[in-house]
Amino acid sequence: MTNSSVRVRFAPSPTGHLHIGGVRTALYNWLFARNNGGKFFLRIEDTDRVRSTQESTDVIFENMEWLGFDWDEEPRYQSNRLGIYDKYIDKLMKDGLAFEVEGGAVSFKVKEKAPLVFDDAVHGKISFDPTLIDDFIIRKADGFPTYNFACVIDDVEMGITHVIRGDDHTSNTPRQQMVYNGIGAKLPVFAHIPMILGEDGTRLSKRHGATSVADYRNRGYLPEALLNFLALLGWSPGHDEELLSIKDMIEKFSLDRVNKTSARFDNTKLDWMNGQYIMDAKVDSITESLKPFIEDAGIDHKLLDKDWLHKLVELYQDRFKTLKEFPLKTAFFFNDDIQFNEKAVKKFLQKDAPPGTEQIGVILEDVCSELSGIADFSVDAIEASLRALIKKYNIGFGKLAQPVRVAVSGDSVSASIFETLELLGKEKSITRIRHAVKTFCGQRETN
Fold it and tell me: pTM of the prediction?
């Protein structure tokens, strides 16, 4: 049953990059709101006047939009709401719950004696001893409110019903609860979600590699795959499902299926999941997404034939797990100065062909002759020619295909050799094979 009165928020501080942990927090809030037909708000907590920057704010918006998030109403900025905070502080001072300290800052007076208890939607009942908490600053000397005060006032003013955030904020809750009590406001439902750990079990940080959304975007991860992966870091839809569309996640999301324990970031699983999304995507869509990565590799995609590039992407769609891998795996199509894998050369170009046959160099020269005679340089014609040579030399297909593959690509691993030769074109294929014969064949492998 949905609850249209649900109102949640994502409230990042614009003091740096949008962290992957912050994205998961935004995702859980957004899924919870959409599942309940409620509202999702974006609030920029820019009260740190030293570290907050417009650049970081712009990055937050850019990456939120790239990920596909939408929000209800215009974003709110705490720096524009100083008058609202001052009104509440004046009331607290009048009621004897706040007082001015040296330098012009204002502190909240801790008067609570009874345990501070709240029901967490993830962890259950949590209790704090208020006698262990000292008076705390709610407005700094520069006139800006502190986090523990401003977020409470904003949540009250915005009618936030559920505060879904990382469990590193659990320790902030008692101070915030005192502020709620001090201004006579009702507590929202708190849900503290488990932290994301690195693969070594420590808190995810830069030493584990990429940590910001921009890092993953630049490495060629698809937004849908990244959201799917993050959703499962601390939440389960049940039935061991792993590949979930946004629609699936919205329909299945609930706070009672959020784990109490931390999840470990598994890069191998993310790569696998991203590869699945790439394979399932339409070729036109993936081709468009690949263009910036092709450009970054020094290739002007505007000079490439559209249909040719489309065929190349389709041929390799199940062979790259990130968009950034594509120009690396297909580099030999774009660059004539190919890099040869030394082991592949020794194994397939620098040893005698199977007993009873000619040497590899002779066979490859025969391949060139066959390819030269093809008028319609198509996959079918190429396959017919190469299979005729297999019969002629009475060898297995791999004994012919692998030397050809190494000769044209530099390595023993590539997509189908027939499609590879077709996309390379007749002239380039023959030129490369002859170059390989001249450079490598006839040279005996030495130990």
Answer: 0.92
